[in-house]
Amino acid sequence: MSGLKAERSLFSYPKFWAECYGPAPFLPTTRKEMEQLGWDSCDIIIVTGDAYVDHPSFGMAVIGRVLEAQGFRVGIIAQPDWSSKAPFMELGKPNLFFGVTAGNMDSMINRYTAEKRLRHDDAYTPGNEGGKRPDRAVIVYSQRCKEAYSDVPLVIGGIEASLRRIAHYDYWQEKVRRSIIFDAKADILIYGNAERPLVEVAHRLAAGETPEQIQDVRGTAVIRKTPLPEWRGSDSTAIDKIGKIDPIPNPYGADDVGCSKSEFAAAGIDLQAEAAKPIVVQPPRLKPYEKAYVKLPAFEQVSVNKPLYAHASRILHQETNPGCARALFQRHGDRYVWVNPPAYPLETEEMDHVFGLPYQRVPHPKYGNAKIPAYDMIKTSVNIMRGCFGGCSFCSITEHEGRIIQSRSQESILEEINQIRDKVPGFTGVISDLGGPTANMYGLRCKNKRAESTCRRLSCVYPTICEHMDTDHTPTIELYQNARQVKGIKKILIASGVRYDLAIEDPRYVKELVTHHVGGYLKIAPEHTENGPLSKMMKPGMGAYDKFKELFEQYSKEAGKKQYLIPYFISAHPGTTDEDMVNLALWLKSHDFKLDQVQNFYPSPMANATTIYHTEMNSLRNIKNNTETVAVPKGARQRRLHKAILRYHDPAGWPMIRDALRAMGKANLIGKAPHCLVPEEGRNERPKTTSKGQPALTKHTGFAQFKKANTKPRVGDNKNRKETFGKKRAKNA
């Protein structure tokens, strides 16, 4: 066994007594719906910041249906008015607990752009209407739940809570905030994929345990005064010194070592006498990571000390492998947040069961004909796997879902395609995506099970692909081929991101993808061309992109198709200098790429790149006194500049780019020559002036601007103008 398997299956628990009610057509959202189901109360109520869509791509639907399959009566309060406690009492008092989530997205990222401007739309809301969820939704919803029923246990989860489980840098307030479990006043925080820990918590609460007794569940965090009993701790408050930790056992095996009888005799040991002694059975020795925890620097320390913050972040990211992760223990004032090791990933059979639950695959009927853009985007797509071993520093998938790939069976996926064909209104025969966090990690795992359960590497593909990582894309190729054969399916598109450095390891996959599953354009994400930012992103160099592009064009030509590869890049990422951005723009121009949609780096909580952004230290390496200082584009002006350089073809950014190029000593890149990035200043860009060099008054020039530009006293100001005009009238008379 690999060490990544849970002791019991997700669906092995005895069903709760309310199983007799059976599955609901839709999980109820009102008292009237509860009455129609014959319920007098809900056992569990889920509060979410998203509209309720009964689809396996919406987290609240998955959690609700999984709990329902355990026999619990589950109600949903979707996008409640948070101005009072009344909407949180709509379904009455839950018998077991409130489950609170911000929804599929972090509420702050959902509500604000990377430049901290308020968004006026929300893809998870009917009519794409913004403002239907509060800032820091988990905290606000939790407060209202406590106001409604103060004695009901409160469990928080979803990506917003998951990425704030310890002290974390908050981009919007530009400071380090404490673990969200303290601000939400929650009893239990569930991080990562919630099915396994939440089912255990629900059954233990149903059995009469209190939250104070449920402190050891994997994948949860709780507030404590002391570590769990019988757990061994190591202090990591010294920079780059986690503490004395026994070495991890050799995952690839070791030779047995023994002693001969002559060696015992030489040592004066009588083997016969020793054999006559009673045998004392010693308890098995714990592995170094079993019942062990790491004491992180306190919130009060990391909030003011950037090296300690970088150090704590580095430790957290090392403790993410369920097979060998230790618990984390971090002080906040006179209390501690205790973060249990991650939950074990779901097995294929468990994944199939989760995705095979009776989802209606449509929004709740209460929304009528209102469009929910997020649903329209995914209604004909199929999630085939979870997790990502890419480890990109700017991405939160690894921190949330983990590096272990959890794949559904091919039979389960094909059955869902059949359901889409039969159930989704207006289905045209096109599956919009077969994917997940990535398109081409389906079925891929570490080939050495012992290594998989003890490895602490942040990425299995950076700086090079690990020799133990399986890169055989046969499972994905066969899935694509069989999916195309499903009756009524005209086209299978792949919209999830293709990890191209992995794809080129198996050209058969590239051929299958390009020949049958590209709708004219394929987006991939090199993210940058320069080694500086790429090393902080943990992304491969452009050599892998060039190889993929070569294969893409070769197989497109063989298929007789005109198809285009669209690269995606990030501007203002930590590690990026102004010169790096100029070099990227020159690469784009040389390849005739003109990007319209450009994303500035968005520092999401707990991501490695966010730590680099905040500390300006390379937390991907050991934190030492001489730790590398990283160039970090900060401030509105520099971030706008990097975005403008990436969109070098847009005249709106030319003045800013010219100023930057001159300051960098690269004025030779301004002009009409092929090597130039932007043209010289055009006549229409220069402010118009009079023959004396003063700004000219035009229909586009306001009087205030004209007056400000001509501040010297002269005949013609208001007072002199009146006097002069009066004298002229008298003279003429």
Helix and strand topology:
Blueprint lengths: L30 H7 L6 E5 L10 H11 L4 E5 L18 E5 L5 H5 L25 H12 L5 E3 L1 H5 L5 E3 L4 E3 L2 H5 L3 E3 L4 H12 L13 E5 L7 E4 L25 H6 L4 H6 L15 E4 L3 H4 L3 H13 L8 E6 L2 E5 L8 H8 L17 H6 L2 E3 L1 E2 L10 H5 L4 E2 L2 H14 L6 E2 L1 E3 L13 H6 L19 H11 L6 E2 L7 H4 L3 H10 L4 E7 L3 H7 L4 H17 L5 E8 L6 H13 L8 E2 L7 H8 L20 H11 L7 H10 L39 H7 L8 H15 L1
Parallel strand pairs: 1-2, 1-3, 3-4, 4-7, 9-10, 10-11, 13-17, 16-18, 19-20, 20-21
Antiparallel strand pairs: 5-6, 7-8, 8-12, 11-12, 14-15
Helix pairs in contact: 2-7, 11-23, 15-17, 17-19, 19-21, 22-24
The major pleated sheet works out as:
10 strands, mixed
SSE-based structural type? alpha/beta
Cα-atom radius of gyration = 31 Å
- Assembly state here? single chain
The share of residues in helices is 25-40%
Mean pLDDT score: 89
Q: In angstroms, what separates the terminal alpha carbons?
A: 113 Å
Shape: globular
Q: Output the strand order for the largest sheet.
A: 2-1-3-4-7-8-12-11-10-9
Please report the number of helical segments.
27
Fraction in beta strands: 5-15%
Low-confidence stretches: 242-264, 698-733
The count of strands amounts to 21
